[in-house]
């Protein structure tokens, strides 16, 4: 099991991806995102997750450059993810979107590029574009986000290669067991966005009881639950003490009983849109 912040999972193509990273959804472009990314890298994070639609790729790129300097590390030591937005899904438009993201981030390549949402009738062409840049060696890994089992099955019918990652909403109120099992069977690594349910779980009595017993915070318990489920996770924060706290999850272990109690909180409840029913 993961022992420290820089431990990785190996994707089915052999690429190593850190189990824990920093998410920057809704982190404002400019000083706020620059500082968050720089702080995370300085504190040992090696994985940063952004997206075209977040509108903060330039700041993320700046934070990466400053963080690398602070930490004395090279680009190869980092794992950077971005995502193509719905309006750019299509073969040529996805290729162009990838170039735009690289330019904004100031990078030569991404470690992971994802299709952000399964827009019907559009994601297969976009996937062909991702396969193309992957085969050209211009991205280390490709995947999807917010894909249900039926979306994955549909994509894989025509794809040359299956996604390496499915990044989904995943937290104790939305455990997605069927999707988890499908990903495991197919060698697709699951990744959690909004692992803390945008803060809505932090005063949950069951989680508080488990946290107190382990002398940890509720956030740390949830992140640890992700990791013990074999799910990569990218909690978002802009405060240094929180960024550090979220990574301090490698010195304790949840028991099988703890894990079962947390699993039992599932209500199939989302804070984000349902991938079967969104209109953007």
TrEMBL record:
The catalytic site is made up of 54 (proton donor)
Q: Which Pfam families match?
A: Aldo_ket_red
Keywords (alphabetical) are:
Oxidoreductase
Highest taxon of source: Bacteria
Q: Which family does it belong to?
A: Belongs to the aldo/keto reductase family.
Please report the name of this protein according to its UniProt entry: Aldo/keto reductase
Q: Which PANTHER family match?
A: 2,5-DIKETO-D-GLUCONIC ACID REDUCTASE (PTHR43827:SF1)
Q: Which GO terms describe its molecular function?
A: oxidoreductase activity
């Amino acid at each position: 099991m993961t022992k420290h912040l820089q431990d990785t999972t190996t994707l089915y193509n052999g690429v190593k991806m850190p189990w824990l990273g920093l998410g920057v959804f809704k982190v404002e472009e400019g000083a706020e995102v620059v500082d968050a990314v720089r702080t995370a890298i300085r504190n040992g994070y090696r994985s940063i997750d952004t997206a075209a639609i977040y509108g903060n790729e330039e700041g993320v790129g700046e934070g990466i450059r400053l963080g690398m300097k602070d930490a004395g590390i090279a680009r190869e030591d980092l794992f950077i993810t971005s995502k193509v937005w719905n309006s750019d899904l299509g073969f040529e438009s996805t290729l162009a979107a990838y170039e735009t993201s690289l330019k904004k981030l100031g990078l030569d390549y991404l470690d992971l590029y994802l299709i952000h949402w399964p827009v019907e009738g559009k994601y297969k062409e976009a996937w062909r574009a991702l396969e193309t840049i992957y085969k050209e060696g211009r991205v280390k890994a490709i995947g999807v986000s917010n894909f249900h089992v039926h979306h994955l099955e549909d994509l894989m019918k025509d794809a040359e290669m299956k996604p390496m990652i499915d990044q989904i909403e995943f937290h104790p109120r939305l455990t997605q067991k069927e999707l988890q099992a499908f990903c495991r069977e197919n060698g697709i690594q699951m990744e959690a966005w909004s692992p803390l349910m945008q803060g809505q779980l932090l005063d949950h009595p069951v989680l508080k009881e488990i946290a107190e017993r382990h002398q940890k915070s509720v956030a740390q318990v949830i992140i640890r639950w992700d990791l013990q489920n074999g799910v990569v996770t990218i909690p978002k924060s802009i405060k240094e003490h929180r960024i550090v706290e979220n990574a301090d999850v490698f010195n304790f272990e949840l028991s099988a009983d703890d894990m079962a109690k947390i699993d039992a909180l599932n209500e199939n409840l989302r804070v984000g849109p349902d991938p079967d029913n969104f209109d953007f």
